[in-house]
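It would be a great kindness if you could assist me with a short task in structural biology. A protein sequence and the structure tokens that stand for its backbone fold form the material at issue. I should value your view on which stretches of the chain appear to form regular backbone elements. The record follows directly beneath this note.
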Amino acid sequence: MTIDQATFRTVMGHLPTGVVAIAGISALAPHPQGLVVGTFQSLSLTPPMVAFSVDRSSSSWPKVRTAGRLGASVLAAGQEPVCQALSRKQPNKFADVAWHLSEYRTPRIAGAHAWIDCAITHELDGGDHVIVLAEVLHMEAGEGDPLVFHRGRLGSYREPVAA
């Protein structure tokens, strides 16, 4: 059975995801390089690792990759403008984004829901995407609720019942 791309996107869009900004500081640019992913996940407790995927056609990922280390900022509810800025194709996506450098020399977006400093360890084939594995160097949680992507829209998460 062949599944067409429109059906695949529609059905998979029913799965809510977090919105994570991935950024690195490269010696090749005077400002951070970054992109947004919706596929960020924990991978391993020992060693602590995360995984995310990036479209092979991304022009931003090669720039982030050169840093070797990256900052993953889990965007908070209300940070839709940050998501939009980092999703655009422009030379300095961070021009209007408040950020600071972590002790691991990775960009952290101000006001994010959580921050994870990582070192890239592997890149795997994932069809039209690259699956990136990274070891966690440091992590911190912020306050508030995460920004959520669901059915093509950005929004907030409301906790109806604790699990």
About this structure: The radius of gyration is 16 Å. The helical segments are 5-12, 61-65, 80-87.
